[in-house]
Amino acid sequence: xxxxxxxxxxxxxxxxxxxxxxxxLEYLFRHVLVQDAAYxxxxxxxxxxxxxxxARVLEQVFAEQLDEVAAELARHFLAAGETxxxxxxxxxxxxxxFAEYANTEAEQSYRQALKLTAVPADTAYLQSQLGExxxxxxxxxxxxxxxxTAIPYYLASQQYPTICHLTAQLARVTRxxxxxxxxxxxxxxxxxxxxxxxxxxxxxxxxxxxxxQQTAFSYHANQQTEQANAAIQQALDxxxxxxxxxxxxxxxxxxxxxxxxxxxxxxxxGLTQAASLATATNDLAVLKQxxxxxxxxxxxxxxxxxxxxxxxxxxxxxxRLGAVVDELxxxxxxxxxxxLLADFTAVQEAIDQMRQLARGLNYPRYAIYATRAQxxxxxxxxxxxxxxxxxxxxxxxxxxxxxxxIADYVxxxxxxxxxxxxxxxxxxxHDQIGLTPxxxxxxxxxxxxxxxxxxxxxxxxQQSLAAAETQFSQRHLEAALLDLARARLAxxxxxxxxxxxxxxxxxxxxQQMSMNWHRLLALEEWATTFWQSPAHRNxxxxxxxxxxxxxxxLQIGYLHYLRQRWQQLIGA
Length: 572
Known about the structure:
Layout: H1 3-12, E1 16-20, E2 26-29, H2 32-40, H3 44-61, H4 66-79, H5 83-99, H6 103-115, H7 120-136, H8 140-156, H9 160-181, H10 186-198, H11 206-221, H12 225-242, H13 245-259, H14 264-280, H15 284-300, H16 304-321, H17 324-340, H18 344-358, H19 365-380, H20 384-394, H21 406-415, H22 419-433, H23 442-455, H24 458-470, H25 476-492, H26 496-512, H27 516-530, H28 537-554, H29 558-571
Antiparallel strand pairs: 1-2
Helix pairs in contact: 3-4, 4-5, 5-6, 6-7, 7-8, 8-9, 9-10, 9-11, 10-11, 11-12, 11-13, 12-13, 13-14, 13-15, 14-15, 15-16, 16-17, 17-18, 17-19, 18-19, 19-20, 20-21, 21-22, 21-23, 23-24, 23-25, 24-25, 25-26, 26-27, 27-28, 28-29
């Protein structure tokens, strides 16, 4: 009986069905149970023989396209008991998936390959690759363990570029874990210094430049400013001499963004150069960093719409990378800029994107982002007491205070009369991040000054304001924060003309930056503060009307709260 007749017989009995006629005949079992029963009916030796035959036929037919069938070949050779060939194709399938950012598939293939080899070089390679994938997926503890397992082999074999690369990655996740969980940033410094000591005569390579970059970041996190500046300068010098686009782009970003941010024109020029290099080399990871940095830059100079656009582009690039954590964090950036613009519809859309990405993702910081998002939505809807309650619940838990949200949280807590929690949050900022008066930024000096003004501790308010003014770098947002702190202190001193001028400057700056939400809050505060002075109540009414019109234009729920609060105030 011919093969054709046998297939027809099986089809007639209902065991199989025709799936395709062109370009070649293809049949499928009608039910998986039938397939399993047929497979299990074969002797083990027959099974292995047929898997081996199929694998070799696939090798011949797809000789020019082995990357496309590597995973299938690996499975057939494994089932055939040919472990060496199975290892080869699992590793190849992992490499293909890794290059395409198919992280789940890459992880599965590398784990299978790892089971099939005891060769130290192969094991070290697979461990390092698994570390990269786990890092992409936000599983940083597991990634660090993989890299720590691989590094000793590369040290023993003096493979210096790989040592530099793995140590740089390990330092990065170690620093991240320290920041997220209140750990010791000095550990990242130790890792970098040990690696640099181990490669004293290492030639200048991209890997060495990037290790020096991570060394600079680690020094910076550990408040070793002089060492950080020296390390980043050395990294940039090496990157420029060797001229490798990927490493140069990454180092340019960090050089301008974190170490030399004063000159906005230089920042933009550096980031533009980095973007060109990343595009030329199709380095999506760098391109994502460029959009992150440009979002921050545009935010500094008041272009909030462009900032949000860059964060959206960063999310798109992260999606192409398959970097779920990076994509989630980019959407968190979209959320923040949308909030600053008082675009609460876009805030909700960002929340929906983040919620979808977080499904099945073991990423502790998502809970922080989700809670913060809920705070912002409640606040925008005028439900201040509920928003403050969420902050109160967050506050005692280690690592759940977002550094860049402290000023807003303190403002909200003072608004609802919870000064105790406001003080606890400010103090926790010092304790967790290791801030000192010398390293405290303009925003937090201004927050302390405002806090003291609201408490009537005017000498302390003046001291904090003076400290903020010494660090002022002419940035728009810093100017607005300084003017708000000045206005609060002047109002507490009943210096109404000075307070009014400062409120006006702050509201104007916030309007220029399109920071609609904070402009609304500033106008509301200005109006309610000036109502306390009988001589300024007409002015207060005019300012309130401006705030009311803005809230109405923005079409946000806060409008109802604003009107209700004003009626309570003028009726008191």
